[in-house]
Design a protein that fits this description.
This protein is of the alpha+beta class and 308 residues long. 21% of the residues lie in helices and 28% in strands. The chain is built from seven helices and 15 strands. The protein has helices at residues 17-25, 29-37, 112-118, 152-163, 236-243, 258-264, 295-307, and strands at 2-7, 41-43, 46-47, 59-64, 82-86, 90-95, 143-149, 168-176, 183-187, 190-192, 200-202, 210-218, 222-229, 271-279, 286-290. The strands form three sheets. Strands 5, 6, 7, 8, 9, 12, 13, 14 and 15 form a nine-stranded mixed β-sheet that branches. A four-stranded antiparallel β-sheet has the order 1-4-2-3. Strands 10-11 form a two-stranded antiparallel ribbon. α1 packs across α2 (29-37). It is globular and about 60 Å long. The protein starts with a strand and ends with a helix.
């Protein structure tokens, strides 16, 4: 552990502790929030929470973890984590709900990386220790297909493919109401929500974000939509459809109707990574994988179809 003493510069006056320290130290807001929660952030000698405000001229004292101490990967079986395909280079899985892709500060639940380790699968050692082999992510509350690199070569090739947007990422979402037009493109920049740090929003000057969609089935109160992502921002599909006033059913964080969520038995957003296609890192041949709907999403669809 190491301790940093920092005066609060004038430019951070009035800023939240997590946002200000993230800028000051080059850390993520999640890491700073975790430090504040465990009492590792002091302002003028007193512990402060992540949402408290900084005052110019104040003295910050921050205890930082040893950078050589990686977050531990716990190898434990993950119920519902299915291997769809594997060879010497890649493993393709269908991720269940409530599972993070890799360990992170504050997350105590199961992870894909831990589940693969428990299954005895060797994955690439590239990347940070807790994210080895991870070339893309799904939210803990989003289910579906994803690929993890097993070889170092595959890690390099797939990382580049995701960065250059040559990967075909297909999602299905049930959104409230009926998007008009029924087929279109949402091109709207995304960044952190200006008032709620746990959310993202369409924000002028945010990171470019492009979502293509097509309604494939319409119900009385909602629509099943096929979605293709050109970019891969955090919460992108959820944020874009919320901005259109058609949030994903069950997604209370982004404005979904709680009455409809209860009616459909949803405790999370109706969003599923349905297909994933990419050039195989070993020989360049195009491969594509598909993940079936999990039980909670399939049940919600049955209810919607029964009413149509």
């Amino acid at each position: 552990m190491s301790t940093r003493m920092l005066p609060v510069p004038d430019g951070l006056d009035g800023m939240r502790v997590d946002a200000g320290l993230a800028k000051l130290l080059g850390l993520s807001r999640t890491v700073v929030a975790d430090l504040a929660e465990t009492g590792e952030v002091l302002l003028d000698g007193k512990p402060v929470g992540k949402s408290e405000r900084l005052a110019a001229g104040g003295l910050l004292e921050v205890t930082l973890p040893d950078p050589d101490s990686p977050i531990e990967v716990v190898a434990e079986p993950v119920p519902g984590l299915r291997v769809l395909f594997q060879d010497d280079d890649i493993v393709v899985v269908s991720k269940p709900v409530g599972v993070a892709v890799h360990p992170s500060p504050g997350w105590t639940g199961p992870t894909v990386v831990g589940g693969l380790a428990a299954a005895g699968l060797r994955i690439s050692t590239s990347g940070a220790a807790e994210r080895q082999g991870v070339v893309h992510r799904l939210d803990a509350g989003t289910t579906g297909v994803m690929v993890v690199a097993k070889s170092e070569h595959a890690y390099t090739v797939l990382k580049r493919a995701f960065k250059e947007r040559t990967v075909d990422k297909g999602y299905h979402a049930v959104v409230q109401g009926h998007p008009d037009p029924t087929r279109g493109t949402i091109d709207a920049p995304i960044d952190r929500h200006p008032r709620h740090d746990y959310k993202f929003a369409v924000v002028a000057g945010g990171r470019p974000s492009i979502t293509h969609y097509e309604v494939i089935e319409a119900f009385r109160a909602a629509s099943l939509v096929d979605v293709k992502l050109e970019t891969g921002r955090t919460h992108q599909i959820r944020v874009h459809f919320s901005a259109l006033k058609h949030p994903c059913a069950g997604d209370l964080t982004y404005g979904a109707d709680p009455v409809l969520a209860r009616k459909l038995g949803l405790t999370r957003q109706w969003l599923h990574a349905r297909t994933l296609g990419f050039a195989h890192p070993a020989d360049g041949r195009w491969v594509q994988f598909e993940s079936e709907y999990p039980d909670d999403l399939a049940h919600a669809l049955e209810i919607l179809r029964a009413e149509t």
